[in-house]
Amino acid sequence: xxxxxxxxxxxxxxxxxxxxxxxxxxxxxxxxxxxxxxxxxxxxxxxxxxxxxxxxxxxxxxxxxxxxxxxxxxxxxxxxxxxxxxxxxxxxxxxxxxxxxxxxxxxxxxxxxxxxxxxxxxxxxxxxxxxxxxxxxxx
Length: 139
Description:
The chain has one helix at residues 117-135; strands at 50-53, 57-62, 65-70, 73-78, 84-89, 95-101, 107-113. The protein is an alpha+beta fold. It contains 1 helix and 7 strands, in the order βββββββα. The strands form 2 sheets. Strands 1-2-3-4 form a 4-stranded antiparallel β-sheet, covered by helices on one side. Helix content is 14%, strand content 30%.
């Protein structure tokens, strides 16, 4: 008996062009080529930082831009790719909502559970000045 056509071993699929090889488990993947990440020469960029995270989501704001992680998916926005960043407490619970608006109009939202109202107020107090530092003076 022969195998019917179309039912053989799987055909290998090539990764998309420009995609870096997968990083080993636990290692932080390298940024895509051509995307600025930090200061020239690989040195960490200077400026204030903000980090908020829970078990599933996180928001990081630093000199390289804004990074949102939602359920294991990371979105990195260098400052050149950010039109605006909005933040507010959710109308329920102890949740920080951060929305990044792309120059093309697309919006990306991340919600981070602070678990305590005091931590939420601390995040709100820290995030405002950090965003002002990087977004002040932009048209």
